[in-house]
Design brief:
The protein has 183 residues and is of the alpha/beta class. It is built from 6 helices and 5 strands. The longest helix is centred in the N-terminal third of the chain and has 24 residues.
């Protein structure tokens, strides 16, 4: 069976979105709760749309849970939205869908800067927590580019290995690498 999909934006239904967010200055617990609720409703609608069109793969936006890896988001969102998350996860499993996530360009596990590696680990873990909260197994993947423009590629590979080894198990079980053909 050929399985195909798309990333984040439902062009066939631009009114459906699962990536509402706000500025950091406006990220109150109330605003984040509202946005997460809207994004989960949007994700559910997008997945129903996809099933109707036999689209089996979907790359989830990093904004489904706004500021999920940032200290500003202290919400216990997996508990607050447990019913919605379980319902979406059940729908995904019942329809044989596969989800992936591709954290942004600043998620760099082989960075020379410890803060970048630390933030990257938090970002990957936030995505894995979402997939866990949906009740999804490790066939639902986190995609990460690995490359470097630095002249010492072997040092970059060693930094990646160290960072990878330190990742939580739930992240390592889902992580897949994508070639970075530019660097």
């Amino acid at each position: 069976m050929i399985r195909f999909g798309y990333a984040c934006i439902c062009l066939g239904r631009p009114d459906l979105t699962a990536s509402r967010t706000c500025r950091l200055a406006n990220a109150t617990p109330e605003r984040l709760t509202e946005l997460i609720g809207q994004n989960l409703a949007g994700l559910s609608a997008i997945l129903r749309y996809n099933v109707e069109r036999k689209i089996a793969l979907f790359r989830v936006s990093s904004s489904v849970i706004p500021f999920a890896s940032h200290p500003i988001n202290t919400l216990p969102w997996p508990e607050i939205f447990a019913d919605e998350l379980a319902g979406i996860g059940d729908f995904i499993k019942a329809n044989g869908l596969r989800l992936s996530a591709h954290p942004g360009q600043y998620t760099v596990l082989n960075s020379v800067r410890d803060k970048v590696v630390s933030d990257s680990t938090l970002e990957l873990d936030a995505h894995a927590r979402l997939f866990d909260a949906l009740g999804l197994d490790s066939t639902h993947k986190l995609i990460l580019h690995v490359g470097t423009s630095a002249p010492d590629k072997s040092a970059a590979l060693e930094r990646f290995r160290r960072s990878y080894d330190a990742l939580p198990d739930r992240v390592r079980a889902r992580l897949v690498l994508e070639n970075d053909d530019r660097i």
